[in-house]
Design goal:
The complex is a heterodimer of chains A (186) and B (129).
Chain A: H1 2-9, H2 17-38, H3 42-62, H4 66-90, H5 106-127, H6 143-152, H7 155-176, H8 180-185
Chain B: H1 4-23, H2 27-52, H3 58-88, H4 103-128
Helix pairs in contact in B: 1-2, 2-3
The chains are: A mainly alpha (186), B mainly alpha (129).
């Protein structure tokens, strides 16, 4: 794990408790993500995605961003995964193992992903070798701070986002509605 | 906390999602991998927001916006996948090759165009008669 390699590089500084917790939860999250993209059972992929997204919510909590963490739990674990499960069932996904879950260009994809991971990790570790996050002091992401900032400085993007959500809602309804020509055919 | 921990985790998660997008065959599994990539970006945004102690909390505001956009994206994406499944009977990306380019596709398109032109000509002839 390059996590451990990164930790070993900084071995002269003993890791703090938060760092150890972050590392453990990060390993679980990454493992769940890897299982999500490699498992042959489609429904299991959605359930492992729950573990990965929940682990990320814990990482947000460790980074003192509590409001984002609870939004993550509500929206991703609560609704996106349920939507994905509904999608799997409505497209009659096989419950057991499906041998054709991966396409033929799996090895090319693996090469691309490993090359990208190596390049990104190398650059990131090299760039931020001497940077430390100060987690002391007042919480950076408490619900109070986030709400004040969001409704004082980010109101206009917030409202634009509500229009975008409305447009997405209307679009999803229009797309998933049966059209009139379908009814005539039956 | 060392900044490399969240940054490295985000990079690895992003590459996991990248592998999933490229290697998966079922359209819904591809959407799941896209969610993983978006979440990696969110982790970076939160970590850098806390690191910079940004008074505007730009990172966390953008994280909330990304989450909302991801929800919209998954809704639209799933309805498109369901429509494709209803019309084609499959959500297998490898089999949706109607817009693929290549000599065979060009010939098929050309023949379809010629057929359509012939049909139109026949209709015009009928109308004239």
């Amino acid at each position: 794990m390059s996590h451990l390699a990164a930790a070993a590089e900084q071995g002269f500084l003993s890791p703090t408790g938060v760092e150890i917790a972050f590392l453990l939860v990060g390993i679980v999250t990454l493992g769940a993500a890897v299982v999500t993209v490699t498992t042959k059972q489609l429904v299991h992929a959605a359930l492992w995605l729950v573990v990965a997204l929940g682990g990320l919510a814990v990482e947000y909590l460790l980074l003192t961003a509590e409001f984002v963490a609870w939004v993550q739990v509500l929206i991703y674990v609560g609704s996106v995964v349920v939507l994905l499960l509904f999608g799997l069932m409505l497209t009659k996904a096989p419950i057991g193992r499906s041998p054709d879950a991966d396409s033929g260009n799996r090895w090319a994809a693996l090469v691309v992903a490993v090359a990208a991971a190596a390049a990104l990790v190398w650059v990131v570790v090299d760039a931020f070798r001497t940077q430390w996050i100060d987690l002391e002091g007042p919480s950076q992401g408490s619900t109070r701070a986030t709400g004040e900032i969001l409704f004082q400085h980010w109101v206009l993007p917030f409202e634009a986002l509500s229009v975008l959500l409305l447009a997405a809602l209307v679009g999803a309804i229009v797309l998933s509605r049966k059209s009139d020509s379908d009814k005539e055919q039956r | 906390m060392h900044l490399a921990y969240p940054a490295v985790l985000a990079a690895l998660l992003f590459c996991t999602g990248l592998y999933g997008v490229l290697a998966r065959r079922n359209a819904i599994l591809v959407l799941m991998s896209v969610e993983l990539m978006l979440n990696a970006v969110n982790l970076n945004l939160v970590a850098f927001d806390v690191w910079l102690r940004d008074t505007l909390h730009t990172g966390q505001a953008l994280t909330l916006f990304t989450i909302a956009i991801a929800a919209a994206e998954i809704g639209i994406g799933l309805s498109i996948v369901l429509m494709v499944y209803r019309n084609r009977g499959t959500s297998d990306i490898d089999r949706l090759r109607d817009t693929a380019e290549g000599p065979a596709a060009d010939e098929a398109a050309a023949s379809a165009l010629a057929q359509k032109a012939a049909q139109e000509a026949a209709q015009k002839a009928e109308a004239a008669a």
